[in-house]
Design brief:
Largest sheet: 5 strands, mixed
Number of helices: 25
Order of helices and strands: HHHHHHHHHHHHHHHHHHHHEHEHHHEHEE
Structural class: mainly alpha
Strand order of the largest sheet: 2-1-3-5-4
Number of strands: 5
Distance between the termini: 106 Å
């Protein structure tokens, strides 16, 4: 084999390895169109926005959240390609999976380019990219939709930052960096703040250590990065229509900070290999503050070991080594929240998910950031900072890989072991397969309701709740509704609702319910009142959904029908109420 043949063989092998690695990454994340979807409930929520975007050729939803067009609070960067796929006829479940597969491909390529940028060779760079893409902190956040994409994209974002700060301070690098900040801002607020924090550390370390480049960093990198983050933030706030975000209670930050042991011992039921060898711990949500995502997504032991190994070996770039170390330490420390917690359990009693100070008195010192500093005071799920910590650890491993042209068996073993430890259990994979089937069933059910409505009709789902299902139902049927899924979205919509809608009590019928429905219709604020027998939040997550409100609502439906003013279509999950047509007026005979 001559040199040309050898080069061609190497490139072909690299492409095959890249394709195989990407396929594994998509499989682990449940983003294989036609086979699986990463989640159900958040997918339905996002698909509602995406379908409405497609209906109106807009970046605002016009089918729900009336009267004003509704901005999607996070994830516009993923909802838009989903809308495009819906517009060209891709089935809803596959449109969502395809959009995620697209962004995961960008994330995989960005991680690969990151390692290559700092000097890694092709094959080992692909393995590092696969190690990142399969991290549990990414796929465990599938239930939070685009949060998982934001975490997956961190190496791609920092690739753009490294190009600008360290390697190529030119116009193309500046444009790429602006694209990264825009993606982060319109994908997920958590990863946007992590990216901003990491870039600040990278800039400060480069400025402090590199005396020869200090002036160029000060006059080129600081203005470009500052302007990019400011432009992205201002565009995002202009889109959603608000510039300030309410800070959360410190008890929330404390409750959703990670216990230290969560970083080192995985939770049983999530990871296949730790479960198989007996290294995982049984944990139940009722025993801990916060929710299950805190202990399910915080496991970082393999990357921590990899980072320690990388730190113990020589590196060709001290500045990057210091920067990545500080980024990792910052992320892991912020993930603890305002208080240190080691095996802290929720005491018996009705405390709810929040954590009062007396149950974790050892302060970390981050409460000032979480209370007073904009951006930081909105990062209420403190444990999610672990993604930045994991990026710092992964970047240290990547720097070690880049510093050694020939990889040792130990390095390769650590990477392969990390990938093996990242593999989800069979139950997780089965849930992703089931998620696609569930979305298909929901879509089929909603389509069966089409004959009931006229396009563009105003429909009020009463009593209103956090109505995720209404997002998708309204967009799919191209009707319009006041209801909307998402607590913050609902609060924004309610500010413009007519009095006939505000008269209903959230989640409750009440003795005047029938009269309120008739008033809503007679004052022509809606053409149809839809009375759900099921919870429209959980129906989007678990389908088919039990009709838990049937017995409660039946007497009200009977009362409304007895008025003689309405026609009612009774179905398994809803009663659809509309006024009877007015009788024709006879012509007057002179």
């Amino acid at each position: 084999m001559n040199e040309t043949d050898g080069t061609a063989f190497y490139k072909t092998s690299l492409r095959l390895l890249a394709a195989a690695a990407l396929l594994i990454g998509l499989f682990v994340n449940g983003a294989l169109p036609g086979f699986m979807v990463p989640t159900t409930g958040q997918a339905i929520w996002t698909l509602g926005f995406a379908q409405s975007f497609a209906n109106g050729f807009s970046i605002y939803a016009t089918n729900f959240g009336l009267p004003a067009p509704a901005a999607i609070s996070f994830g516009l960067a993923a909802a838009l390609p989903t809308a495009l796929f819906l517009k060209i006829g891709v089935p809803p479940a596959d449109a969502y999976a395809l959009a995620f597969a697209l962004w995961f491909t960008v994330a995989f390529y960005g991680a690969y380019r990151f390692v290559r940028l700092i000097g890694g060779r092709g094959g080992i760079s692909l393995l590092c990219a696969l190690l990142w893409l399969t991290l549990p902190v990414i796929w465990q956040h599938a239930d939070y939709s685009m949060v998982s994409l934001g975490f997956a994209l961190l190496p791609a974002y920092f690739y753009a930052a490294l190009r600008l700060v360290r390697y190529e301070r030119n116009l193309p690098s500046s444009i790429l960096f602006l694209a990264a900040t825009l993606s982060a801002a319109f994908m997920d607020g958590y990863s946007f703040m992590m990216f901003a924090s990491g870039v600040a550390i990278l800039l400060l370390v480069s400025f402090a250590i590199s005396s020869t480049e200090r002036k160029e960093i000060l006059y080129k990198c600081f203005p470009v990065t500052g302007a990019a983050f400011a432009i992205s933030y201002l565009l995002y706030t202009a889109y959603i229509g608000k510039t300030r975000f309410e800070a959360e209670d410190l008890d929330f930050f404390r409750a959703f900070g990670s216990n230290i042991e969560f970083l080192f011992v995985p939770t049983q039921g999530g990871l296949w290999l730790p479960d198989f060898v007996g290294l995982s711990a049984v944990r139940q949500e009722i025993n801990y503050f916060g929710d299950g995502s805190v202990f399910n997504a915080s496991f970082a032991l393999v990357l921590i070991i990899a980072a320690i190994y990388a730190l113990a070996t020589r590196s060709s770039d001290v500045r990057l080594k210091v920067a990545f170390l500080l980024v990792g330490l910052c992320g892991f420390y912020m993930a603890l929240g305002p208080s240190f917690k080691w095996n802290v359990l929720r005491p018996e009693g009705d405390f709810g998910p929040l954590m009062p100070f007396q149950y974790a008195p050892w302060r970390t010192g981050t409460e000032f950031l979480s209370t007073y500093v904009p951006g930081f005071n909105n990062m209420r799920a403190s444990y999610r900072w672990v993604a930045l910590g994991m990026f710092g650890a992964w970047a240290l491993l990547a720097l070690h890989v880049a510093s050694h042209r020939v990889q040792s068996g130990t390095t390769i073993a650590i990477i392969l072991a990390g990938i093996a430890f990242n593999m989800p259990t069979r139950a997780v994979i089965a849930a992703n397969v089931q998620a696609r089937e569930t979305i298909v069933e929901i879509d089929r059910y909603v389509e069966s309701l089409r004959p009931i409505f006229q396009p563009g009709e105003r429909v009020a789902f009463v009593p209103f709740r956090n109505d995720f299902f209404a997002n998708y139902m309204a967009s799919k049927l191209d009707i319009r509704t006041y209801n909307i899924g998402g607590d913050k979205n609902l609060a924004v919509a309610m500010a413009g609702w007519p009095d006939t809608m505000l008269a209903f009590e959230p989640g409750k019928a009440g003795p005047e319910f029938g009269k309120k429905v008739l008033r809503l219709l007679t004052e022509q604020d809606a053409e149809v009142a839809a009375i759900p027998y099921m919870d429209l939040l959980w129906a989007a997550h678990q389908w088919p959904r039990a009709t838990e409100y049937f017995d409660e609502m039946q007497p009200y439906v009977d009362e409304i029908q007895s008025s003689g003013m309405v026609d009612i279509i009774r179905s398994e999950n809803f009663a659809f109420v509309r006024l009877k047509p007015a009788p024709p007026v006879s012509p007057q005979i002179p």
